[in-house]
Amino acid sequence: MITFEEAYKKVIHYRRNYGTETVGLLEATGRVLALDIKADRDFPPFDRSTKDGIAIAVEALDGEKNQLRIEGVLPAGNPRAELSDKNNCMEIMTGAVVPKGADTVVMYEDINIANGLATINQNPTRGQNIHVRGSDVNQGATVLYQDTKISGAEIGILAAVGVTQVVVKKLPSITLISTGNELVEVEETPLPHQIRKSNMQSLYAALREEGIVAQQVHLNDQSEDVREGLQKALQESDVLLLSGGVSKGKFDFIPLAMEELGVKKIFHKVLQRPGKPFWFGVHKATSTLIFSFPGNPVSTFANYHVYFKDWLKKSLGLPILGFDVILTESILANGTLTLFLGVKTFMEAGKLRASLVTENGSGDLMSLAKSDGFIRLAPRDTPYAIGEAVPFVPARNLIY
Amino acid sequence: MITFEEAYKKVIHYRRNYGTETVGLLEATGRVLALDIKADRDFPPFDRSTKDGIAIAVEALDGEKNQLRIEGVLPAGNPRAELSDKNNCMEIMTGAVVPKGADTVVMYEDINIANGLATINQNPTRGQNIHVRGSDVNQGATVLYQDTKISGAEIGILAAVGVTQVVVKKLPSITLISTGNELVEVEETPLPHQIRKSNMQSLYAALREEGIVAQQVHLNDQSEDVREGLQKALQESDVLLLSGGVSKGKFDFIPLAMEELGVKKIFHKVLQRPGKPFWFGVHKATSTLIFSFPGNPVSTFANYHVYFKDWLKKSLGLPILGFDVILTESILANGTLTLFLGVKTFMEAGKLRASLVTENGSGDLMSLAKSDGFIRLAPRDTPYAIGEAVPFVPARNLIY
C-alpha cells in the first residue's frame, strides 16, 4: 500500500493535455483560455469623457475669465469634433470623445448654463474627467493570459477586444461507471435488499459544474458484461470514473477485466480513510485513465475531490491552490492512515474555521450534505490542536 | 444621496419570491431546493456488510472454536438469506445483506479458507463491519432542507431517496439592457469613436453561473426607442439590469421614459465609489425591478456583485453569508463615500488575505481580470490598517 502523498503524486503525474477547441463567447464562461488575448486597439480607444458637462481648454480660463461660449453638444457615439476657438467649450456626454482643442472636462454640477454661456464655478485641474486613450492598456498588450479560468470579468474583456470565438482547453470525455447488482435506477422502487444509484449521480452533478457532461454506464456483476462495458468505455472516453468493484469480493470482476483489456494498474490501495481501496490505472493502447473509487458514497465523493479535481485542474493548466482551514476542535489522527474528515466551514474576520461533521462511517451518504469539504490529516502522534491550520479539500462552492 | 447601507437595505427590502418549478434530477445542480426532502426508507435500508469476508454469529466462537463451516456465498443485490445453523457462516460481499442469524462480519484479511471451512485468526467484536439498518437516518426523517443550494452531495442524496423530479425555486427572468450610441456589437470593428459592448456580456456570463439565461437588448439614445424597448422589457421580465443612461447627460432618456411608463424610483445615487449614479426602481404595474448601473465597466460589475447578487440570494431564500479578508496594506478611505476596491486574494494558513489591484478608475475594464472581488470600506478618518479584517464582496469563485 502506498501513502496518500505517493498516490497523489502519481495521479498528478498522469495529467493530460486534451488540446483546444473553439467556443462562442457566451459559451466560454467556466472554460480555460488556451491562448493569450491581446488588445486590438488602445483602451480606452480615444480620450473619453467620464462625466456629463463641458469640454474646455483649461488655458481659456487664465486670469479672471470663467465664462465660455458653448459651441455645440457632443453625445457619445459621435466622431471626434474640434473646438473652433479654444476660448469656447462644447457640452459633452459621458463616453463621448473629447474634442480636439479641449483638454479638460468640467461636470454639470460645477457649472451654470445661461444664454449659450457656461459659467465655471470651480477652478478645474487640467485633464480632469478624461479617461486618456491607451491609459488602461495599449494596442497589442496582453489583456488575458493563457490558462486563465473565464468568468464574467474575462467575458467582458473578450467582448471589448472583439473576440467572438474563444480558443479554450478541451475538456476530457468521461464515462461514469457504476457496478453492483444491488443497484437500481433512481426512478425504481428498490426491493428491501437493493439501493438506488447515487454515487454516479453525485459525480455527474460535480462534473457538470466543471462543464463536463459525462456518459453513464452501469455494469452488472457478470464477467462478460463487465468486460464488454469496459472495453467500449475505454475506446470512447478519455477518463473512466468507477465506483465499486475493486475490493476483494468474489463478484468484483473489474480488476481481472482491466488486466485482460490491457489496462496497467498504477496503484491499488492507499493508506487513507475513507477510500483505502482506490485503484488507479491507465489503458496502454488508448491512454484512457481509470479512477476506480470504492463503492461507499463518502469514499467516492472524497476521492473524487481529493484526486480527480486536482488532476483535472492540472490537465487544464490551472494552478492548484492549496486551501487551509483553522480547526475549532482538537483531533487525533495517529496510526498509519491519512484521514479525510468532513467539515463545515465558517468565515470569521478573514479566517476560515472548520468543525467536524458527525458522520456514521464511509457509507453515510447523508453526512455529505452537511459538509463543505474534507480536512486532510496526515498521521501523526500528537493530536491536531484547536487553532491549527490544516489542508482543506473543498467539495462545494464556499465563497461566492 | 443616500448611504451604501441605506441603498443596500432598500434593495434587499425588495426581495421577491418567484415561486417554484420542477426540474429533472440531473438539471437540479446549482438550483435551490423549495421543499424539505425526507428519507423514503431507512438508510441503510438493511444491515449491510461493509467488507468482503464472512458473516457469522459471534456467539459461535465461544471457547476455543475458531473454525466455521461455510454455508454459501452472499453477493450484493441478493435478498436476505438465513444461516441454517448459527455455528456456520456465509461468505458475504461488500454491500450485501447480512443474513438472519449473523451479527458480525469478519473480513477475508483476517481469515483462512480451506475445505469449506473458515478459520478466524483474530477475535472479532460483535457487530463489526456491519452498517446497521437506519443508523444513518430513519425513514421519514428530513435529509435535505428547503432553501439548500444543490451541489453534487445533494444530488446523491436526492437520487438515494428516489427523487427524480426536484421542486426548486424559480429564477427571475432578466433582461439586460445596454444603452448608448457609442456601442457596437462584439463582432463589429468599431470606428475610432465607438467601443464594443462589454458590460452586458460580463453580466450575461455572471448570470449564467447563477443558472439564469438573460435576454439582451440594446437601446439607442433616441427617446422613442428607449420608451418602446423599456416598455417591452418591463412586461416580459421580472428584473431589468441596465448599464448607462442614468447620469445627467442630455441624451439619457431613460429616467424620463421610466417615469412615463410608471416606474417608481426607489433611489438614485449612492454615496459610494465606484457606482455613485446607481438607480433603483420598481414598475408599479408589473412589480418588475430595475437595477440601473452606471455605464463604466467597474461600476456596473461592482454594483452587480454588491447589490444584485445578494438580492438574488435573498429572493431565493439563501443565506447571505458575510465574507471578510485581511488587508496586507493600509488604506485611507476618508471622506463621505463607501469605497469598493478591487483586490486579489490569497489564502495562507486559513487566513484569506487581500491586496489592492492597481486600476485606472472605474472605466478600467482590464483591471477586473486581476481582481477576485471588492473590499468594502466605509468612510472613516483613521486609515484601515494592515492585518485588519474588512468586508469582502467576491466576484469570482475563490475556493473550489
Class by helix and strand content of chain A?
alpha/beta
Domains counted in the coordinates of chain A: how many?
A: 4
What is the CATH architecture term of the largest domain in chain A? 3-Layer(aba) Sandwich
Spatial order of the strands forming the largest sheet of chain A: 7-4-6-5-9-8
Largest sheet of chain A: 6 strands, mixed
Oligomer classification: homodimer
Outline the low-pLDDT stretches of chain A.
none
Residues in helices of chain A, as a percent range: 10-25%
Report the CATH topology name of the largest domain in chain A.
Molybdenum Cofactor Biosythetic Enzyme, Chain A
Radius of gyration of chain A: 31 Å
Instruction: Give a count of the beta strands of chain A, DSSP E runs of length 2 or more.
Output: 26
CATH class of the largest domain in chain A: Alpha Beta
Question: Which geometry of chain A do the CA atoms define?
Answer: elongated
Number of helices of chain A: 6
Average of per-residue pLDDT values of chain A? 94
- Superfamily at the CATH H level of the largest domain in chain A? MoaB/Mog-like domain
Q: What is the terminal separation of chain A in angstroms?
A: 39 Å
**Biggest interface pair, counts:** A-B, 122 and 123 residues
Q: What fraction of residues of chain A sit in β-strands?
A: 25-35%
